[in-house]
Amino acid sequence: MAMNMPATKLDVETAKPVGAAAPVVAMTPKRPPRSEAYARMARETAVRVIPPLVVIALLTLVWELVCRRAGSALPPPSKVFKDTKELIFDPFFDHGGIDKGLFWHLSASLQRVALGYSISAIAGIALGVLVGQSVWAMRGLDPLFQVLRTIPPLAWLPLSLAAFRDGQPSAIFVIFITSIWPIIINTAVGIRNIPQDYRNVAAVVQLNPLEFFAKIMIPAAAPYIFTGLRIGIGLSWLAIIAAEMLIGGVGIGFFIWDAWNSSHISEIILALFYVGIVGFVLDRVIAGLGKIVTRGTAQN
Amino acid sequence: MTAYLKLDHIDKIFTRGAATTEVLKDINLTIEKGEYVSIIGHSGCGKSTLLNIIAGLTNASTGGVLLEEREVNSPGPDRAVVFQNHSLLPWLTVYENVRLGVDKVFARTKTRAERDAWVMHNLNLVQMAHARDKRPSEISGGMKQRVGIARALAMEPKVLLLDEPFGALDALTRAHLQDSVMALHQKLGNTILMITHDVDEAVLLSDRIVMMTNGPSARIGEVLEVPLARPRKRLELATNATYLKCRQRVLEFLYERHRFVEAA
Predict the structure, then answer these.
(1) Cβ count near A36 (within 10 Å)
(2) DSSP state of B136
(3) Residues of chain A positioned with their CB less than 8 A from the CB of B89
(4) Quick check: pTM over 0.90?
(5) Residues B114-142, buried b or exposed e (16+ Cβ, 10 A)?
(6) Residues of chain A above pLDDT 70, percent
(7) pLDDT tens, A251-275?
(8) Sign for the pseudo-dihedral over CA of B161, B167, B172, B173
């Protein structure tokens, strides 16, 4: 009798919680009201937007105070706005020659970048794949790349002017030669880092080289490739401004140089502002594109 | 007794600079069609190298692998591998991962619709049809391994090679998946070669257990038949005398006669 006791007691103990647990599971969790969700969203947005706005306001104020004195070399923000009102509110005018609205200058620069950068993206990825895939190509080309990539963009300009005898292709070449190195190097690293597992899978499935390239290599290396592309677009934008200052014609780079020659300091400041915004947008565009393309690849 | 898969005097020597290491020495093994064979041994004994040689991912230094009397020395879908860490391509969905192999193997013999149906059939076999549009990062480790098995099965391999397929899983998931593999083997009659370091797993699943000695120069130390009737039930076997005896034999081999010295 005494020996049976623990057994029956155990039965009772285990049976009870099962019965008690069932209704708890069936209950639906309480949802927070919708207004609360909106309030939280507004709070989160405010936390991110307010600090930069405050900093910008403060910096503008300091600038205004420093430059407002008579005889100061640089104009205060209020004067910049007054001087460039026409340029800000009418970016689309075209009076022939290089007397055009800022939209046209920016679009000319962007077209050069688009062309030069596209060529460097294609050539860079192709060369990167070659260097990443073949040990001999790496041994032969890598030292060359390491030296060439340290040459400043503008140092290429006289040589390319000599070769092309025209400003337009020279500027495009400078963009190309500036932005190709990070693309090559990052692509090569990405290709070299493709896990052996993926190569084994491709071998078992018997993918041919072309299928291997399209279905394994490019997606597996995509995060690295996009790192290179992102550095490349930044460098392109750096190079085009400098190159345009020297080759002249329509373009935001020459607009700045022209403004300096005519002592329109306010216009320079406005142009710098636009250059910064466009560079930022270009970087975001490539980053966003990378995020879409490498969805799922980065995390495993 | 027909040799379906034959390992014929396989030696494997790795050379790095002037140093050479003999990993495998004189491996001879004959596997019949429909058989489930496990290879067990301590880590570093070269069992994964052996599986890679059979898969064609590495070449033997001497000797060779014969599948249906034909020598094989390059990888192919007739020896599909289920990799230890699933090796699903993270940028493809579950469906696309399986489809990749199916598209290659049945490019000429099946229409698009048939290939689609075949992929879904194999996902159904491993109970993963519900996750067809998920990416590998969105499913659990056990589910990934199921998809890995479906990918291998969908290639209709002559031999299915499992490289420690349950090694990275927790104990409960592992048991569940072992039962699934047993059921699939029962249903489809595949020839399966599995690498493992888990004694219970080897005894539960295999018809024969190949025990490897420690490397370098690992050999086949002993081959044990497991005379248990199928289908096998995990719970019933726990007290089965034959099961316990087989288990004992493997344990004795691994821990008494060929103790892993470096681990001690």
Answers:
(1) 10
(2) G
(3) 198, 201, 215-216, 219-220
(4) no
(5) ebeebbbebbebbebbebbeebbeebeeb
(6) 88
(7) 999 999 999 999 999 999 999 999 9
(8) negative
> How long, in residues, is chain A?
300
Question: For residue A25, what is the enclosing H or E element?
Answer: helix A5-26
pLDDT digits (tens, 9 = 90+) for B153-191: 999 999 999 998 888 888 888 898 999 999 999 988 889
Facing residue for B104 by CB, picked from A206, A216, A222: A206
Percent of chain B with pLDDT over 70: 97
Backbone phi and psi for residue A148, each to the nearest 5 degrees, phi listed first: -65, -35
Q: Tell me the nearest-neighbour CA distance from A220 into chain B, angstroms.
A: 8
Q: Confidence class of residue A107 from pLDDT cuts 50, 70 and 90?
A: very high
Judge: A203–B87 Cβ closer than 8 Å, yes or no. Answer: no
Q: What is the DSSP letter of A251?
A: S
- Outline where B25-82 has alpha helix (H): 47-55
**pLDDT per residue as tens digits for the range B88-99:** 999 899 999 999
What tokens were used for B31?
Answer: 């596997």
Query: How would you list the strands of the sheet with B159-163, edge to edge?
Result: B81-82, B159-163, B191-196, B36-40, B208-212, B220-225
A192 touching B (Cβ < 8 Å): no
Q: Which residues of A touch B140 (CB under 8 A)?
A: none
CA–CA separation, B201 and B165 (whole Å): 11
Nearest CB partner across the interface for A200, out of B57, B100, B155: B57
Q: State the residue for tokens 């599909």.
A: B80
